[in-house]
Amino acid sequence: MSYLRFAMVRGMVSAIPAVMKKGEGLPRTQTDLLAHAVRELPLPSGGALVFAPVGDAAGVDLPETIRRCAPRRQATFAAGRMAALEALRKAGCQDVTVPGIGGDGLPDWPPGWLGSISHSDDAAAALVAPDGCARLLGLDLERIVTAETAMQIASEIMPEQPTGRSGLPLEHEVTRAFSAKEALYKALYPLTRQFRDFSAAHICWQKDAPGAPVRVMLTLTEDWGAGCVAGTVFEAIQRTAAGHVATILWR
Ligand SMILES: CC(C)(COP(=O)(O)OP(=O)(O)OC[C@H]1O[C@@H](n2cnc3c(N)ncnc32)[C@H](O)[C@@H]1OP(=O)(O)O)[C@@H](O)C(=O)NCCC(=O)NCCS
């Protein structure tokens, strides 16, 4: 959403390969760090989660609508598509091509596959799974906002509760709430085709053991359609690394 995009503080990342391989030592780039941080998150069976750096758009045949966009948008789109292509390959999708743009701006996934793409100005990611292994899935990647921005947007992102309940620093709490709700929306929209704002789900923070994936429970406050009724609870799992929060949500 454009009114939230302005709130994100952007950094730069060099175009070094994203996926850390065995024996290569410590992760060095933002995308390495993100990939490393999420490596043990539980994914749907047969699924894959891949990060890619945002560099330039070279190497991706951009759709006409994206070619007319600013270079930054071209670059984030291309990085998201590179991550999607790699995720589909990693998950074993045969004869894979770069997903086009489908209805409502959703990626045009190959038949039999579900997926979700997210990007900041620095990094992109894609989560995919065979559609028999998940009914819905959502991915969100957000650069952590400043404390000042967090104060400004907190009541809009979390109208259901005052800040401070998570025990996290304000900027982490608000970014995580925002990312969890965006991942929820991105998981549900392809099913429901209905817009919902940030009051349409309530956050409940889970206190995880140190080192464990951090979980956030989201309860729908209203019916979203497609059988997703008020009171339905979804679990989002998050990791924070390289100045970003990554959220996955699937079932
Ligand atoms: C659609 C929306 C979720 C995108 O989030 P964002 O942080 O701006 O952008 P991200 O990088 O995470 O995701 C963008 C990608 O999501 C995908 N996407 C676009 N619209 C989508 C939708 N309605 N549902 C699911 N995925 C969508 C696309 O792949 C897009 O990337 P691409 O255009 O390069 O292919 C956001 O703009 C929005 O409308 N949010 C308001 C709704 C909301 O979050 N409500 C909270 C309910 S509790």
UniProtKB/TrEMBL annotation:
GO biological process, one term: enterobactin biosynthetic process
Pathway: Siderophore biosynthesis; enterobactin biosynthesis
A GO molecular-function descriptor: magnesium ion binding
Protein name: Enterobactin synthase component D
Residue intervals of the 4'-phosphopantetheinyl transferase domain: 137-210
Positions of Mg(2+) binding: 140, 142
Keywords for this protein: Enterobactin biosynthesis, Magnesium, Metal-binding, Transferase
Record domain 4'-phosphopantetheinyl transferase N-terminal: where: 65-129
GO CC entries: enterobactin synthetase complex; plasma membrane
Cofactors: Mg(2+)
Protein origin, superkingdom: Bacteria
Reaction catalysed by this enzyme: apo-[peptidyl-carrier protein] + CoA = holo-[peptidyl-carrier protein] + adenosine 3',5'-bisphosphate + H(+); apo-[aryl-carrier protein] + CoA = holo-[aryl-carrier protein] + adenosine 3',5'-bisphosphate + H(+)
Binding site for CoA: 73, 81, 118-119, 140, 182, 186
Pfam families: 4PPT_N (PF17837), ACPS (PF01648)
Assembly information from the UniProt record: EntB, EntD, EntE, and EntF form a multienzyme complex called enterobactin synthase.
Source species of the chain: Paracoccus onubensis
Function description: Involved in the biosynthesis of the siderophore enterobactin (enterochelin), which is a macrocyclic trimeric lactone of N-(2,3-dihydroxybenzoyl)-serine. The serine trilactone serves as a scaffolding for the three catechol functionalities that provide hexadentate coordination for the tightly ligated iron(2+) atoms.
Keyword Metal-binding: yes
Membership in a protein family: Belongs to the P-Pant transferase superfamily. EntD family.
InterPro entries: 4-PPantetheinyl_Trfase_dom, 4-PPantetheinyl_Trfase_dom_sf, 4PPT_N, Enbac_synth_compD-like
Keyword Manganese applies: no
